[in-house]
Amino acid sequence: MGIIIDRNTRTIVWGITGTQGSFHTKLMLEYGTKIVAGVTPGKGGTQVLNVPVYDTGEEAQEKHSANAAIIFVPAPFAADATLEALENGIKTIVIITEHIPIKDAINIMARAKETNATIIGPNTPGIITPGESKLGIMPAHIFKPGKVGMVSRSGTLTYEVAASLTRKNLGQSTCLGLGGDPITGLNFIDALKMFEKDEHTEAMVLIGEIGGNLEELAAKHISEAKYPKPVVAFVAGRSAPPGKRMGHAGAIVMGKAGTAESKIEALKKAGVKVAEKPGDIAELINV
To answer: Has 248 been annotated as catalytic?
Structure first.
């Protein structure tokens, strides 16, 4: 059992007939994820990899009773797809799409809050509970079941760190990508609280990056809540120049706020071990 998803999670794929949607649906099915339906307006009645496709989320949900959704819909239409999933009672939604307009993202998060739903992303590699299920685009072969929970703002670094944990035979309980857009559903604190209750997780890895104050807030929470599990962190972007966006829409330093230094300092103050480079993380974990 993982946090958020497990082998019984039933998923609808929005945008299943697109290049990305069909490609990653194949990989998710191969991993054992239960994909029960797809939604693409105008493609109802067709199939993708033996998965039935519907014109609307309402029809798909009526026939298949899903509890999760994954969104592969282009940015201008991704908000509508997500809102459709929320309106049809889906409580876990992974949004792979990046660069969703900020106004749309704010609207999505407000609606998710009202309906008590969990949004992962946008601009996320998704979530994987190794050996159980994956909802996302991560390369599954580098993950293996284990005791380390991972929460990350960077997809590529997630894979690098997961691979090093796998090489050290530590494995992962669940790996979760928060997403690289300026506004995302889950944050580090939300994830830390979920992992705290997870009996399969014995240690935590946080992968942060420049921009925003998510890491500083996480450090405050770890310190004030006396977080019971050991936490190791890495913050990308130490040499980033102020005012330049680095990779992700959310990775931008404005003045003193959002620098790697301020994040690292806050985490260290909270008793978190901070790795100099991603490869050091596995060495710093004690489980």
So the answer is: yes
